[in-house]
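Design a sequence for this backbone.
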């Protein structure tokens, strides 16, 4: 296993040197992609669900999520600085565990959590688009609009890297500026001591607050979009880490502003009632009808750019997994490159999830998959790579423990409120590991017979 990892390090290192300087995504384009995924999911898709669990303390849940994410980002930054690569999480796991079942399965869990995020944000886009017409409860229209956005994201990605980077940069500037205007205006209109912040904080239990942090972490996990696109970023050894840090910092400020604006305008009960479109609901009492429509427009821009950036990153990761022979590949009669095939597979799975699941269950499933994968990354880096990349064991273990505590709290809460989603998550993880074991075992047998 150690020899396999060492051989992989040498080969990947040589490849990194060949690709260095050939990236097509600038530092600002990478930040736009990272914030595009995070803000699309974190603000518009998850604020209501976080408030439902954390009560009046829900802005602090975003702070806790940022702290846990900062710990988690340490592993990814250290690895990306050493070996920047498109599909970077697959690279991290392969270097940590070798090209076996653990690395392949954890990489696939990450890819699935990203696809789940696409469907989550696509349904949020549809919810906000239908809200002005009072049709956000129409399941058929929700599914159709979500699917249309995913197809549009495919078309933008099929046009090439520069199209994704340029589109993400423009949309991120629009939505971050718009969200800041909304938040400041809403706080100014309502003050900081009304709405949810006038309610008793004792309505929040410690376990529920910890469980809410699982959603908050999901709101920040878009930074992995940057890791998975490392080989496409200009001067990756220098810019990948900077892009991750800047993206997380921008999102912390944005999330705090918005959570304060929503909490000052609405009570917790009102936020929960409108949890799939909570920003639009908060805009109307604070800013009137103009503010309501302004927020709708910003939400559509944010969720659209989030899906486009996520489709880009997950297709690169699946391409990397295929080239590393960690997942099977079939072109199903399609022409074109492997990358174009991965784009198709990504949007097909994301589209199916967007049609079949509601927002709450999509978000929960993504949280389970992501936390399990994240723990495997930290343990692998701690166990096998920390000396080689100069990582501090204390930070790696702190990230691992934080993930474990939050996963345990989230699991306990979901066992009480929605045990089926826990069953779906466990079944999904077991299926992924079993499928990878069978695929890799068959590949070994075929290799031995040659």
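Sequence:
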């Amino acid at each position: 296993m150690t020899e396999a990892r060492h051989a992989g390090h040498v080969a990947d290192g040589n490849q990194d040197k060949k690709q260095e300087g050939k990236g097509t995504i600038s530092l600002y384009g990478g930040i736009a992609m990272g914030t595009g995924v995070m803000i699309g999911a974190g603000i518009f898709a998850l604020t209501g669900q976080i408030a439902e669990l954390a009560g009046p303390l829900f802005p602090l849940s975003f702070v806790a999520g940022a702290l846990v994410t900062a710990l988690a980002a340490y592993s990814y930054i250290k690895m990306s600085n050493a070996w920047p690569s498109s599909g970077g999480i697959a690279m991290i796991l392969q270097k940590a565990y070798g090209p076996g079942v653990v690395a392949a399965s954890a990489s696939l869990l990450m890819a699935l959590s990203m696809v789940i995020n696409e469907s989550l944000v696509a349904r949020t886009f549809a919810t906000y688009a239908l809200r002005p017409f009072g049709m956000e409860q129409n399941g058929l229209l929700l599914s159709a609009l979500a699917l249309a956005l995913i197809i549009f994201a495919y078309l933008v990605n099929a046009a090439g890297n520069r199209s994704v980077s340029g589109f993400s940069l423009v949309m991120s500037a629009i939505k971050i500026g718009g969200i800041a205007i909304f938040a400041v205006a809403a706080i100014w209109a309502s003050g900081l001591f009304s709405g949810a912040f006038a309610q008793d904080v004792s309505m929040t239990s410690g376990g529920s607050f910890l469980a809410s942090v699982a959603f908050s972490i999901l709101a920040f996990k878009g930074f992995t979009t940057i890791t998975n696109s490392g080989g496409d970023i200009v001067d990756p050894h220098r810019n990948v880490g900077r892009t991750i840090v800047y993206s997380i910092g921008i999102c912390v400020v944005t999330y705090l502003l918005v959570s304060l604006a929503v909490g000052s305008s609405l009570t917790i009960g009102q936020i929960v009632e409108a949890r799939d479109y909570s920003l639009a609901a908060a805009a109307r009492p604070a800013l009137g009808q103009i503010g309501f429509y302004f927020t709708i427009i910003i939400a559509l821009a944010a969720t659209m750019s989030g899906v486009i950036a996520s489709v880009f990153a997950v297709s690169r990761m699946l391409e990397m997994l295929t080239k590393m022979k960690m997942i099977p590949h079939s072109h199903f009669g399609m022409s074109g490159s492997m990358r174009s095939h991965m784009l198709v597979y990504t949007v097909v799975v994301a589209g199916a999830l967007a049609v079949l699941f509601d927002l709450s269950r999509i978000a929960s499933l993504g949280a389970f998959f992501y936390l399990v994968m994240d723990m495997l990354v930290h343990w692998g880096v701690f166990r096998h790579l920390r000396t080689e990349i100069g990582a501090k064991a204390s930070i790696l273990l702190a990230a691992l423990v934080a993930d474990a505590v939050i996963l345990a709290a989230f699991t306990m809460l979901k066992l009480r409120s929605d045990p089926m989603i826990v069953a779906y998550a466990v079944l999904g993880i077991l299926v992924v590991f079993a499928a990878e074991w069978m695929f890799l075992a068959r590949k070994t047998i075929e290799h031995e017979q040659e």
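Confidence is low (pLDDT under 50) at residues 6-21.
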